[in-house]
Amino acid sequence: MGPSKRFPTTSPSSSALSLNFSLTSSPRRKSTMNSNKSIRNLGWPLLKALVCLFVLFEIGSFLLSARSDPHPVSSDKPASQAPEPKFLSDQEVIKSTPEDPADWAKSFHRYGLAEAQCTSEFSDLFKDIARAVEHRNTIGHVQPKDLDIGWKEEGAVRAMIYNQKLFILESKINDGFMISRALGTLQQIDRALKASPEPLPNIEFSFVVGDLPDTEHAHHTVWALSRLAVDEEMWLMPDFGYWSWPLDLVGNYEQIRTEIKANEVDWAQKIPKALWRGAVKTNPVRSKLLKATRGKKWADVQEVKWKNRTDVAAGSASSAMSMVDHCKHQFLIHTEGRSYSGRGKYLLNCESIIFMHKREWVEPHHSVLVSEGLNQNFVEVERDFSDMEAKIQELINNPERAKVIAHNSATTFRDRYLTPAAQACYWRHMIRAWAQVSFTPKPWVLINGEKKLRGVPFETYVVQALENTIKTCSVWKKMSLQC
User: SS3 of 423, please?
Assistant: First the structure.
Protein backbone atom coordinates (compact mmCIF):
# COMPACT_ATOMS: atom_id res chain seq x y z
CA MET A 1 0.00 0.00 0.00
CA GLY A 2 1.10 3.55 -0.69
CA PRO A 3 1.98 6.16 1.92
CA SER A 4 -0.83 6.99 4.33
CA LYS A 5 -2.72 10.24 3.85
CA ARG A 6 -3.50 12.74 6.66
CA PHE A 7 -7.12 13.82 6.96
CA PRO A 8 -8.36 17.12 8.67
CA THR A 9 -9.47 16.52 12.26
CA THR A 10 -11.14 18.81 14.84
CA SER A 11 -11.66 18.54 18.59
CA PRO A 12 -15.22 18.83 20.03
CA SER A 13 -14.44 22.25 21.51
CA SER A 14 -13.10 23.68 18.31
CA SER A 15 -16.15 22.37 16.46
CA ALA A 16 -18.41 24.20 18.88
CA LEU A 17 -16.44 27.39 18.51
CA SER A 18 -16.66 27.15 14.76
CA LEU A 19 -20.38 26.56 14.92
CA ASN A 20 -21.04 29.43 17.33
CA PHE A 21 -18.79 31.77 15.43
CA SER A 22 -20.48 31.02 12.15
CA LEU A 23 -23.78 32.36 13.44
CA THR A 24 -22.42 35.90 13.39
CA SER A 25 -19.61 35.56 10.89
CA SER A 26 -19.35 37.09 7.48
CA PRO A 27 -20.32 35.17 4.27
CA ARG A 28 -16.63 34.63 3.52
CA ARG A 29 -16.14 32.85 6.86
CA LYS A 30 -19.29 30.82 6.24
CA SER A 31 -17.73 29.67 2.99
CA THR A 32 -14.55 28.64 4.81
CA MET A 33 -16.53 26.66 7.35
CA ASN A 34 -18.51 24.89 4.62
CA SER A 35 -15.26 24.03 2.84
CA ASN A 36 -13.81 22.47 6.01
CA LYS A 37 -17.02 20.53 6.51
CA SER A 38 -16.80 19.16 2.96
CA ILE A 39 -13.24 18.02 3.56
CA ARG A 40 -14.31 16.26 6.76
CA ASN A 41 -17.21 14.60 4.93
CA LEU A 42 -14.83 13.43 2.20
CA GLY A 43 -12.28 12.13 4.72
CA TRP A 44 -14.50 9.50 6.32
CA PRO A 45 -15.23 7.51 3.11
CA LEU A 46 -11.54 7.53 2.23
CA LEU A 47 -10.62 6.36 5.72
CA LYS A 48 -13.19 3.57 5.47
CA ALA A 49 -11.78 2.56 2.08
CA LEU A 50 -8.27 2.33 3.53
CA VAL A 51 -9.54 0.20 6.41
CA CYS A 52 -11.25 -2.14 3.91
CA LEU A 53 -8.06 -2.42 1.88
CA PHE A 54 -6.12 -3.26 5.03
CA VAL A 55 -8.62 -5.99 5.92
CA LEU A 56 -8.44 -7.42 2.38
CA PHE A 57 -4.66 -7.39 2.55
CA GLU A 58 -4.73 -9.32 5.82
CA ILE A 59 -7.13 -11.86 4.31
CA GLY A 60 -4.85 -12.22 1.31
CA SER A 61 -1.87 -12.77 3.58
CA PHE A 62 -3.78 -15.44 5.46
CA LEU A 63 -4.73 -17.19 2.21
CA LEU A 64 -1.13 -17.10 1.07
CA SER A 65 0.02 -18.68 4.29
CA ALA A 66 -2.72 -21.28 3.98
CA ARG A 67 -1.61 -22.10 0.45
CA SER A 68 1.96 -22.57 1.62
CA ASP A 69 0.80 -25.21 4.09
CA PRO A 70 0.65 -28.51 2.17
CA HIS A 71 -1.74 -30.01 4.73
CA PRO A 72 -4.26 -27.30 5.74
CA VAL A 73 -6.61 -28.35 8.54
CA SER A 74 -10.31 -27.44 8.44
CA SER A 75 -11.59 -25.82 11.63
CA ASP A 76 -14.84 -27.84 11.65
CA LYS A 77 -13.11 -31.23 11.49
CA PRO A 78 -10.68 -32.75 13.94
CA ALA A 79 -7.16 -32.84 12.58
CA SER A 80 -6.19 -36.36 11.60
CA GLN A 81 -2.92 -37.57 13.02
CA ALA A 82 -0.40 -37.77 10.19
CA PRO A 83 1.70 -40.94 10.21
CA GLU A 84 5.23 -40.48 11.45
CA PRO A 85 7.58 -40.46 8.43
CA LYS A 86 9.93 -43.40 8.18
CA PHE A 87 13.36 -42.70 6.79
CA LEU A 88 14.86 -45.35 4.51
CA SER A 89 18.38 -45.99 3.28
CA ASP A 90 19.23 -45.92 -0.41
CA GLN A 91 19.79 -49.68 -0.37
CA GLU A 92 16.31 -50.27 1.11
CA VAL A 93 14.65 -48.29 -1.68
CA ILE A 94 16.70 -48.89 -4.81
CA LYS A 95 17.66 -52.45 -3.83
CA SER A 96 20.80 -52.40 -5.92
CA THR A 97 24.50 -52.32 -5.20
CA PRO A 98 26.12 -48.88 -5.03
CA GLU A 99 27.75 -47.73 -8.25
CA ASP A 100 31.41 -48.66 -8.50
CA PRO A 101 33.53 -45.48 -8.43
CA ALA A 102 35.45 -46.87 -11.39
CA ASP A 103 32.22 -46.82 -13.46
CA TRP A 104 31.38 -43.20 -12.61
CA ALA A 105 33.47 -41.89 -15.52
CA LYS A 106 31.05 -43.47 -18.00
CA SER A 107 27.86 -43.25 -15.94
CA PHE A 108 24.76 -41.82 -17.62
CA HIS A 109 24.01 -40.03 -14.32
CA ARG A 110 26.92 -37.68 -15.05
CA TYR A 111 26.68 -34.38 -16.90
CA GLY A 112 30.37 -34.44 -17.79
CA LEU A 113 30.90 -37.14 -20.41
CA ALA A 114 33.65 -36.45 -22.94
CA GLU A 115 32.75 -35.58 -26.53
CA ALA A 116 33.85 -39.00 -27.82
CA GLN A 117 31.63 -40.73 -25.24
CA CYS A 118 28.67 -38.53 -26.18
CA THR A 119 29.06 -39.33 -29.86
CA SER A 120 29.45 -43.03 -29.19
CA GLU A 121 26.48 -43.36 -26.85
CA PHE A 122 23.93 -40.84 -28.14
CA SER A 123 24.56 -40.27 -31.86
CA ASP A 124 20.92 -41.06 -32.76
CA LEU A 125 19.80 -38.19 -30.51
CA PHE A 126 21.61 -35.59 -32.62
CA LYS A 127 19.79 -36.10 -35.93
CA ASP A 128 17.85 -32.84 -35.87
CA ILE A 129 21.06 -30.94 -35.12
CA ALA A 130 22.59 -32.50 -38.25
CA ARG A 131 19.51 -31.42 -40.21
CA ALA A 132 19.87 -27.83 -38.95
CA VAL A 133 23.57 -27.73 -39.88
CA GLU A 134 22.82 -29.02 -43.37
CA HIS A 135 20.13 -26.37 -43.81
CA ARG A 136 22.51 -23.55 -42.79
CA ASN A 137 25.16 -24.86 -45.15
CA THR A 138 22.54 -24.64 -47.90
CA ILE A 139 21.17 -21.15 -47.22
CA GLY A 140 24.31 -19.58 -45.73
CA HIS A 141 25.87 -19.24 -42.31
CA VAL A 142 24.25 -17.43 -39.39
CA GLN A 143 24.90 -13.67 -39.32
CA PRO A 144 24.50 -11.24 -36.38
CA LYS A 145 21.30 -9.81 -37.89
CA ASP A 146 19.74 -13.28 -37.81
CA LEU A 147 19.81 -13.23 -34.01
CA ASP A 148 17.65 -10.13 -33.60
CA ILE A 149 14.75 -10.80 -31.19
CA GLY A 150 12.92 -7.52 -31.75
CA TRP A 151 10.13 -9.42 -33.50
CA LYS A 152 9.27 -11.31 -30.30
CA GLU A 153 7.28 -9.42 -27.65
CA GLU A 154 7.78 -11.95 -24.85
CA GLY A 155 9.78 -15.08 -24.11
CA ALA A 156 13.04 -14.48 -26.01
CA VAL A 157 16.68 -14.26 -24.92
CA ARG A 158 19.87 -13.39 -26.79
CA ALA A 159 23.01 -14.78 -25.17
CA MET A 160 26.72 -15.44 -25.64
CA ILE A 161 29.20 -18.08 -24.54
CA TYR A 162 32.67 -16.68 -24.04
CA ASN A 163 35.55 -18.55 -22.41
CA GLN A 164 33.18 -21.20 -21.01
CA LYS A 165 30.96 -18.57 -19.36
CA LEU A 166 27.40 -17.64 -20.19
CA PHE A 167 26.34 -14.00 -20.74
CA ILE A 168 22.86 -12.62 -21.39
CA LEU A 169 22.96 -9.89 -24.03
CA GLU A 170 19.24 -9.14 -24.32
CA SER A 171 16.23 -10.47 -22.47
CA LYS A 172 12.55 -10.12 -23.33
CA ILE A 173 11.33 -12.04 -20.31
CA ASN A 174 8.73 -10.27 -18.15
CA ASP A 175 5.95 -12.76 -17.54
CA GLY A 176 6.50 -14.87 -14.42
CA PHE A 177 5.72 -18.07 -16.32
CA MET A 178 8.36 -17.23 -18.94
CA ILE A 179 10.91 -16.34 -16.25
CA SER A 180 10.89 -19.90 -14.88
CA ARG A 181 11.23 -21.31 -18.40
CA ALA A 182 14.09 -19.00 -19.33
CA LEU A 183 15.93 -19.68 -16.08
CA GLY A 184 15.45 -23.43 -16.50
CA THR A 185 16.92 -23.24 -20.00
CA LEU A 186 19.86 -21.05 -18.99
CA GLN A 187 20.59 -23.24 -15.97
CA GLN A 188 20.90 -26.25 -18.26
CA ILE A 189 23.27 -24.45 -20.61
CA ASP A 190 25.39 -23.28 -17.69
CA ARG A 191 25.44 -26.81 -16.26
CA ALA A 192 26.56 -28.27 -19.60
CA LEU A 193 29.34 -25.66 -19.79
CA LYS A 194 30.60 -26.21 -16.26
CA ALA A 195 30.52 -30.01 -16.55
CA SER A 196 32.29 -30.14 -19.91
CA PRO A 197 35.69 -31.88 -19.73
CA GLU A 198 36.70 -30.09 -22.95
CA PRO A 199 36.51 -26.40 -23.87
CA LEU A 200 33.54 -25.27 -25.94
CA PRO A 201 33.65 -22.65 -28.71
CA ASN A 202 32.58 -19.04 -28.25
CA ILE A 203 29.16 -18.46 -29.79
CA GLU A 204 26.29 -15.98 -29.87
CA PHE A 205 22.71 -17.23 -30.15
CA SER A 206 19.04 -16.50 -29.47
CA PHE A 207 16.34 -18.75 -28.06
CA VAL A 208 12.62 -18.62 -27.31
CA VAL A 209 10.82 -20.45 -24.51
CA GLY A 210 7.16 -20.17 -25.50
CA ASP A 211 5.11 -23.14 -26.65
CA LEU A 212 4.65 -21.41 -30.02
CA PRO A 213 8.12 -20.15 -30.96
CA ASP A 214 7.06 -18.23 -34.08
CA THR A 215 3.34 -18.00 -34.75
CA GLU A 216 3.95 -16.41 -38.16
CA HIS A 217 6.50 -19.06 -39.21
CA ALA A 218 8.64 -16.22 -40.57
CA HIS A 219 11.85 -18.29 -40.65
CA HIS A 220 13.57 -16.73 -37.66
CA THR A 221 16.87 -18.33 -36.65
CA VAL A 222 16.34 -19.27 -33.02
CA TRP A 223 16.74 -22.18 -30.67
CA ALA A 224 13.28 -23.47 -29.75
CA LEU A 225 11.63 -26.12 -27.58
CA SER A 226 9.77 -27.55 -30.56
CA ARG A 227 9.13 -26.79 -34.22
CA LEU A 228 6.94 -27.69 -37.15
CA ALA A 229 8.54 -29.30 -40.20
CA VAL A 230 8.30 -25.98 -42.09
CA ASP A 231 10.39 -24.17 -39.45
CA GLU A 232 13.70 -25.26 -40.93
CA GLU A 233 15.69 -22.35 -39.49
CA MET A 234 14.88 -23.37 -35.93
CA TRP A 235 17.26 -25.46 -33.85
CA LEU A 236 15.71 -27.79 -31.31
CA MET A 237 16.95 -27.40 -27.74
CA PRO A 238 16.06 -29.55 -24.70
CA ASP A 239 12.90 -28.67 -22.81
CA PHE A 240 13.24 -26.35 -19.80
CA GLY A 241 11.70 -29.13 -17.70
CA TYR A 242 14.98 -31.03 -17.76
CA TRP A 243 15.93 -28.51 -15.07
CA SER A 244 12.60 -28.27 -13.24
CA TRP A 245 8.92 -27.41 -13.52
CA PRO A 246 7.43 -24.99 -10.95
CA LEU A 247 4.76 -27.55 -10.03
CA ASP A 248 4.51 -29.94 -7.07
CA LEU A 249 2.98 -32.59 -9.35
CA VAL A 250 6.04 -32.44 -11.61
CA GLY A 251 9.10 -30.74 -10.12
CA ASN A 252 12.79 -31.45 -10.67
CA TYR A 253 13.58 -33.86 -13.51
CA GLU A 254 16.22 -35.90 -11.71
CA GLN A 255 14.01 -36.18 -8.63
CA ILE A 256 11.17 -37.55 -10.76
CA ARG A 257 13.45 -40.09 -12.43
CA THR A 258 14.76 -41.29 -9.08
CA GLU A 259 11.29 -41.61 -7.54
CA ILE A 260 9.88 -43.34 -10.63
CA LYS A 261 12.63 -45.94 -10.44
CA ALA A 262 12.13 -46.43 -6.70
CA ASN A 263 8.38 -46.99 -7.11
CA GLU A 264 8.40 -48.98 -10.37
CA VAL A 265 6.55 -52.33 -10.23
CA ASP A 266 6.45 -55.39 -12.47
CA TRP A 267 4.20 -55.37 -15.52
CA ALA A 268 1.68 -57.78 -13.99
CA GLN A 269 1.22 -55.46 -10.99
CA LYS A 270 0.41 -52.42 -13.13
CA ILE A 271 -3.19 -51.35 -13.76
CA PRO A 272 -4.25 -52.68 -17.21
CA LYS A 273 -5.78 -49.40 -18.35
CA ALA A 274 -4.80 -46.49 -20.57
CA LEU A 275 -4.27 -43.38 -18.44
CA TRP A 276 -4.42 -39.71 -19.39
CA ARG A 277 -4.84 -36.51 -17.38
CA GLY A 278 -4.69 -32.97 -18.69
CA ALA A 279 -6.33 -29.74 -19.80
CA VAL A 280 -8.63 -30.37 -22.76
CA LYS A 281 -8.95 -26.94 -24.37
CA THR A 282 -5.28 -26.57 -25.34
CA ASN A 283 -5.59 -28.81 -28.42
CA PRO A 284 -8.54 -30.32 -30.37
CA VAL A 285 -6.90 -33.76 -30.29
CA ARG A 286 -7.55 -33.88 -26.55
CA SER A 287 -11.30 -33.50 -27.03
CA LYS A 288 -11.13 -36.32 -29.57
CA LEU A 289 -9.32 -38.43 -26.98
CA LEU A 290 -12.09 -37.90 -24.43
CA LYS A 291 -14.69 -38.78 -27.05
CA ALA A 292 -12.86 -41.95 -28.15
CA THR A 293 -12.40 -43.23 -24.59
CA ARG A 294 -15.73 -42.23 -23.03
CA GLY A 295 -17.29 -45.23 -21.28
CA LYS A 296 -14.46 -47.60 -22.20
CA LYS A 297 -13.44 -50.10 -19.52
CA TRP A 298 -9.82 -50.08 -20.70
CA ALA A 299 -9.47 -46.29 -20.31
CA ASP A 300 -8.96 -43.94 -17.37
CA VAL A 301 -9.08 -40.57 -19.13
CA GLN A 302 -10.07 -37.44 -17.22
CA GLU A 303 -9.80 -33.71 -17.69
CA VAL A 304 -7.82 -31.67 -15.18
CA LYS A 305 -8.74 -28.01 -14.82
CA TRP A 306 -6.28 -25.44 -13.53
CA LYS A 307 -6.97 -22.58 -11.13
CA ASN A 308 -3.92 -20.77 -12.45
CA ARG A 309 -0.64 -21.68 -14.11
CA THR A 310 0.71 -23.64 -11.16
CA ASP A 311 -2.29 -24.86 -9.14
CA VAL A 312 -4.99 -27.40 -9.98
CA ALA A 313 -8.59 -26.25 -9.52
CA ALA A 314 -10.33 -27.61 -6.43
CA GLY A 315 -12.75 -29.70 -8.51
CA SER A 316 -9.86 -31.48 -10.26
CA ALA A 317 -7.69 -32.13 -7.21
CA SER A 318 -8.95 -35.70 -6.80
CA SER A 319 -8.26 -36.65 -10.42
CA ALA A 320 -4.83 -34.98 -10.75
CA MET A 321 -1.92 -37.41 -10.49
CA SER A 322 1.81 -37.13 -9.93
CA MET A 323 4.18 -38.38 -12.60
CA VAL A 324 5.24 -41.24 -10.34
CA ASP A 325 1.63 -42.43 -10.05
CA HIS A 326 1.30 -42.44 -13.85
CA CYS A 327 3.81 -45.29 -13.95
CA LYS A 328 1.40 -47.57 -12.07
CA HIS A 329 -0.53 -48.07 -15.33
CA GLN A 330 0.40 -50.39 -18.18
CA PHE A 331 -0.63 -47.90 -20.87
CA LEU A 332 -0.04 -44.14 -20.90
CA ILE A 333 -1.44 -41.72 -23.47
CA HIS A 334 0.55 -38.73 -24.65
CA THR A 335 -0.95 -35.87 -26.67
CA GLU A 336 0.31 -32.59 -28.04
CA GLY A 337 -0.66 -29.43 -26.16
CA ARG A 338 -0.67 -25.84 -27.41
CA SER A 339 2.11 -27.14 -29.62
CA TYR A 340 4.30 -29.89 -28.21
CA SER A 341 3.70 -31.18 -24.70
CA GLY A 342 6.57 -31.43 -22.23
CA ARG A 343 4.88 -34.35 -20.47
CA GLY A 344 6.21 -36.93 -22.92
CA LYS A 345 9.73 -37.10 -21.50
CA TYR A 346 8.36 -37.90 -18.04
CA LEU A 347 6.02 -40.64 -19.29
CA LEU A 348 8.89 -42.21 -21.24
CA ASN A 349 10.72 -42.72 -17.95
CA CYS A 350 8.03 -45.25 -16.95
CA GLU A 351 8.36 -48.90 -17.92
CA SER A 352 4.92 -48.69 -19.51
CA ILE A 353 3.68 -48.47 -23.10
CA ILE A 354 3.24 -44.93 -24.40
CA PHE A 355 0.49 -44.29 -26.94
CA MET A 356 1.10 -41.20 -29.10
CA HIS A 357 -1.04 -39.84 -31.91
CA LYS A 358 0.66 -38.86 -35.16
CA ARG A 359 2.61 -35.74 -34.31
CA GLU A 360 2.92 -32.32 -35.95
CA TRP A 361 5.48 -30.83 -33.55
CA VAL A 362 9.05 -32.13 -33.43
CA GLU A 363 11.15 -32.59 -30.26
CA PRO A 364 14.80 -33.68 -29.99
CA HIS A 365 14.09 -37.21 -28.70
CA HIS A 366 11.63 -38.00 -31.48
CA SER A 367 14.54 -39.25 -33.56
CA VAL A 368 14.75 -42.39 -31.39
CA LEU A 369 11.04 -43.26 -31.40
CA VAL A 370 10.36 -46.62 -33.10
CA SER A 371 6.71 -47.40 -33.90
CA GLU A 372 7.03 -50.98 -35.20
CA GLY A 373 9.32 -53.98 -35.48
CA LEU A 374 11.51 -55.80 -32.98
CA ASN A 375 12.76 -52.53 -31.43
CA GLN A 376 9.32 -50.92 -31.14
CA ASN A 377 9.30 -48.60 -28.11
CA PHE A 378 5.89 -46.87 -28.36
CA VAL A 379 2.53 -47.26 -30.12
CA GLU A 380 1.41 -44.72 -32.70
CA VAL A 381 -2.29 -44.05 -33.31
CA GLU A 382 -4.34 -41.72 -35.51
CA ARG A 383 -4.94 -38.14 -34.41
CA ASP A 384 -8.59 -38.95 -33.73
CA PHE A 385 -7.66 -42.10 -31.73
CA SER A 386 -10.01 -44.17 -33.89
CA ASP A 387 -7.61 -47.13 -33.92
CA MET A 388 -6.49 -46.99 -30.29
CA GLU A 389 -9.05 -49.42 -28.87
CA ALA A 390 -8.04 -52.17 -31.30
CA LYS A 391 -4.34 -51.67 -30.53
CA ILE A 392 -4.91 -51.69 -26.77
CA GLN A 393 -7.00 -54.85 -26.91
CA GLU A 394 -4.31 -56.52 -29.00
CA LEU A 395 -1.71 -55.79 -26.32
CA ILE A 396 -4.01 -56.80 -23.46
CA ASN A 397 -4.49 -60.13 -25.23
CA ASN A 398 -0.74 -60.49 -25.84
CA PRO A 399 0.97 -59.52 -22.56
CA GLU A 400 4.35 -60.91 -23.59
CA ARG A 401 4.50 -58.60 -26.61
CA ALA A 402 3.33 -55.72 -24.41
CA LYS A 403 6.13 -56.36 -21.91
CA VAL A 404 8.70 -56.29 -24.72
CA ILE A 405 7.51 -52.86 -25.94
CA ALA A 406 7.49 -51.48 -22.39
CA HIS A 407 10.99 -52.83 -21.78
CA ASN A 408 12.24 -51.37 -25.07
CA SER A 409 10.81 -48.01 -24.06
CA ALA A 410 12.52 -48.04 -20.67
CA THR A 411 15.91 -49.11 -22.00
CA THR A 412 15.76 -46.60 -24.87
CA PHE A 413 14.56 -43.53 -23.02
CA ARG A 414 14.82 -43.95 -19.24
CA ASP A 415 18.18 -45.72 -19.36
CA ARG A 416 19.82 -43.87 -22.27
CA TYR A 417 18.40 -41.01 -24.32
CA LEU A 418 16.58 -39.13 -21.53
CA THR A 419 19.36 -39.46 -18.95
CA PRO A 420 21.26 -36.49 -17.46
CA ALA A 421 24.31 -37.46 -19.52
CA ALA A 422 22.32 -37.42 -22.77
CA GLN A 423 20.89 -33.97 -22.07
CA ALA A 424 24.27 -32.36 -21.35
CA CYS A 425 25.76 -34.12 -24.37
CA TYR A 426 22.96 -32.72 -26.55
CA TRP A 427 23.61 -29.16 -25.39
CA ARG A 428 27.34 -29.40 -26.03
CA HIS A 429 26.85 -31.07 -29.41
CA MET A 430 24.49 -28.28 -30.44
CA ILE A 431 26.92 -25.58 -29.27
CA ARG A 432 29.73 -27.12 -31.32
CA ALA A 433 27.50 -27.58 -34.37
CA TRP A 434 26.22 -23.99 -34.12
CA ALA A 435 29.79 -22.69 -34.06
CA GLN A 436 30.46 -24.48 -37.36
CA VAL A 437 27.80 -22.50 -39.23
CA SER A 438 27.80 -19.20 -37.31
CA PHE A 439 29.98 -16.12 -36.86
CA THR A 440 32.52 -15.70 -34.06
CA PRO A 441 31.11 -13.22 -31.53
CA LYS A 442 32.81 -10.00 -30.52
CA PRO A 443 32.64 -10.26 -26.71
CA TRP A 444 33.95 -6.78 -25.84
CA VAL A 445 32.48 -3.30 -26.12
CA LEU A 446 34.33 0.03 -25.77
CA ILE A 447 32.46 2.55 -23.58
CA ASN A 448 34.06 5.93 -22.86
CA GLY A 449 37.47 4.47 -23.51
CA GLU A 450 36.92 1.52 -21.17
CA LYS A 451 36.77 -2.08 -22.42
CA LYS A 452 33.86 -4.02 -20.94
CA LEU A 453 32.46 -7.47 -21.57
CA ARG A 454 29.10 -7.43 -23.32
CA GLY A 455 25.95 -8.42 -21.55
CA VAL A 456 25.23 -9.59 -18.03
CA PRO A 457 26.92 -12.66 -16.50
CA PHE A 458 24.48 -15.52 -16.06
CA GLU A 459 24.92 -15.55 -12.28
CA THR A 460 24.02 -11.86 -12.05
CA TYR A 461 21.05 -12.32 -14.37
CA VAL A 462 19.59 -15.01 -12.10
CA VAL A 463 19.82 -12.76 -9.04
CA GLN A 464 18.30 -9.83 -10.93
CA ALA A 465 15.46 -11.99 -12.25
CA LEU A 466 14.55 -13.07 -8.73
CA GLU A 467 14.69 -9.47 -7.47
CA ASN A 468 12.46 -8.27 -10.31
CA THR A 469 9.97 -11.07 -9.72
CA ILE A 470 9.58 -10.03 -6.09
CA LYS A 471 9.22 -6.34 -7.01
CA THR A 472 6.54 -6.99 -9.64
CA CYS A 473 4.39 -9.11 -7.31
CA SER A 474 1.76 -6.52 -6.44
CA VAL A 475 -0.55 -6.55 -3.43
CA TRP A 476 -3.46 -7.53 -5.66
CA LYS A 477 -1.51 -10.46 -7.17
CA LYS A 478 -0.62 -11.65 -3.68
CA MET A 479 -4.23 -11.38 -2.57
CA SER A 480 -5.45 -13.28 -5.66
CA LEU A 481 -2.74 -15.96 -5.15
CA GLN A 482 -1.01 -15.19 -8.46
CA CYS A 483 2.43 -14.92 -6.85
Answer: helix
